[in-house]
Specification:
Largest sheet: 8 strands, parallel
CATH architecture: Alpha-Beta Barrel
Protein name: Aldo/keto reductase
Order of helices and strands: EEEHEHEHEHEHEHEHHEHH
Structural class: alpha/beta
Organism: Spirosoma flavum
Domain NADP-dependent oxidoreductase: 16-260
Number of strands: 10
InterPro entries: AKR2_Oxidoreductase (IPR053135), NAD(P)_OxRdtase_dom_sf (IPR036812), NADP_OxRdtase_dom (IPR023210)
CATH superfamily: NADP-dependent oxidoreductase domain
Pfam family, one: Aldo_ket_red
Number of helices: 10
Helix content: 25-40%
Length: 273
């Protein structure tokens, strides 16, 4: 899989990861089994990043359970979030995330939707200095908060910023993506498939012949390669509970990526449907 460097460390990160919102919030063995296969499939295709949050119900616990004893525990990049107010509440919640995900060190701890971010940022700096976490991040999922994310990047050293971006939701191209690049901040892309709504736009439509030039075999890969072709994108994190969808998503991280002109052609095609 293609990798991009995390600017603050120059560590290489594979460009397709996995989100766990809704998809990993399960409790029965029958529901967990395909998720075990999802993780194996991501590993098989070279992906590493698993993104979760205490906001996502049982997702952190399921990630911890399925990775523990799998023989792949050390092969993944574990990311989660703090989503509460107050220093002590934040510390308690993050400690619980370590237990749920069965981690002694968390690769990335993010401040979810900027909730009480100034308070948590100081804690995260202390934890990073102590080696408890490797990277610090901030997140949001709406266009209206891109300006706030940009302002924080300009005045506070963080390693990652996570936000929404897709072929039909391109607000991040106005300033946020370039701001992240300018400040040396890695980017994680949420809602890359429009929470699945993009597939409704292309239902019954055939891929254009020129998509073959970029080894695009599905509409999912079409949408993800559009995003990954932006040079300021570090990693995209679509969520899925289906191993075949994970394989399809991961394939977007392989092969050639479209150039700027082709990206505009891709966007124009989807806008015309």
């Amino acid at each position: 899989m293609i990798t991009r460097l995390i600017p603050s460390s120059k560590e290489a990160l594979p460009v397709v990861g996995l989100g766990t919102w809704q998809t990993f919030d399960v409790s029965t063995p029958s529901a967990k089994e395909p998720l075990r296969e999802v993780l194996k499939m991501m590993h098989q295709y070279g992906g590493t990043l698993i993104d979760s949050s205490p906001m996502y119900g049982r997702s952190e616990t399921v990630v911890g359970e399925l990775t523990a004893g799998s023989g792949l525990e050390s092969q993944f990049f574990y990311a989660t979030k703090v989503w509460t107010r107050g220093r002590e509440a934040g510390i308690q919640q993050m400690e619980e995330s370590f237990v749920a995900m069965r981690r002694k060190t968390m690769d990335l701890m993010q401040i979810h939707n900027l909730v009480d971010w100034k308070t948590h940022l100081q804690t995260l700096r202390d934890w990073k200095a102590a080696g408890k976490i490797r990277y610090i991040g901030i997140t949001h999922y709406t266009d209206s908060m891109h300006g706030d994310l940009e302002q924080i990047l300009a005045s506070n050293p963080v390693d990652f910023v996570q936000f929404n971006y897709s072929i039909v939701s391109r607000n991040a191209e106005k300033r946020l993506l370039s701001a992240a690049a300018d400040h040396g901040v890695a980017t994680l892309i949420n809602r890359p498939l429009g929470e699945g709504n993009l597939f409704a736009k292309v239902r019954g439509k055939s891929l254009p012949n020129w998509a073959k030039e970029y080894e695009i075999e599905s509409w999912g890969q079409f949408f993800l390669k559009f995003i990954l072709a932006h040079p300021a994108v570090t990693c995209v994190i679509p969520g899925t509970s289906k191993p075949d969808h994970m394989a399809d998503n991961a394939k977007a991280g392989h092969g050639p990526l479209p150039d700027a002109a082709t990206r505009e052609k891709m966007a124009a095609l989807i806008a015309g449907f």
